[in-house]
Amino acid sequence: SRNPVMRGGECGLVDERGFDDDHWVRQAHRVRDERARRPSQSKFRVVAVVVYERGDGTVSHVIGHNDEAACLKNSICAERAAFVQLCMLPQSACSRVTAVYIASDAAEPITPGALCREFMMSSPLTSTDTRIVMEGGGRRLDLRLAGLYPHASPYIRLTAEEQAAAGRRLGPAVRPFPAAHEQQAWEGAVAAAQRDARPLHAIGYGACVVFEDGSDARAWQWKALEYSCSLDAVCLLAPALAARRDGGVEPRVLCLADQHGVCHAPHATARAILVEHGYGDVRVLVHDSDGHAHTPTAAELLPTAPTAFDAFLACGGGAGEA
Known about the structure:
- By secondary structure, the chain is of the alpha+beta class.
- Helix content is 26%, strand content 21%.
- The strands form 3 sheets. Strands 8, 9, 10, 11, 12 and 13 form a 6-stranded mixed sheet that branches.
- A hairpin with a 5-residue loop joins strand 3 (46-53) and strand 4.
């Protein structure tokens, strides 16, 4: 690839259009190797290099790495750490993300976790066709964002006000689900969503799971003033799912819906929990942006899920006695 050139009139800013995938992958691995202080809990290092295009067509990048707190939920991934830096740039200085390059301590390419996928899909700087390139152990994956996070919420890139308007418009237009157990799940989730009424955001969420014996369990989102402290409605069903499985009863269908009656695929945290804890086969009810109904499995909502558990444990993740 050709060498980058300095941008005329803007001292110190470099045009990096000449760099190819090999350069950015090497950059990600170099930053990872140079990071002496590992994340405090897992010791597993991940680096994301986010390459973006400026308004004048020139190219630059930001770098993020993962870090962790003693409370596992209060941790941040490399991709999100990089993307939040883009918010500080003037709009003219960052028009779109062209690619994200990811390297880790694993001897294989690892895909972004569910939260990273959802956050990147939410960004106005990405598109469904944004490239996500992962490299490890000399092997490389080159995927598109849409393939990593299918059935994103119809509200995925909307402001709170726009979400409220979309819900009012889409709610009356959504298509029904034909089976009785699906209707039961939808009605239960919509009813539960009415309990998520704390006025911190325009959208409330409720969840309902219907089991093989016809019974159901319901939960609703618990909003917190610091949004990331909120409790996900689907995740709040975990004790009911575990208790019924212990009794030999499996879930048949699951629904996450808002107060307008729109069904959403589970959000990122719930996708990861369902897949990693053995509920990948459960069907979920989903409406797309046109109101059409879909019933993918939970596993289909998290394709090519991260699988580097051995590498994670080898770095010290999960170390110590319970």
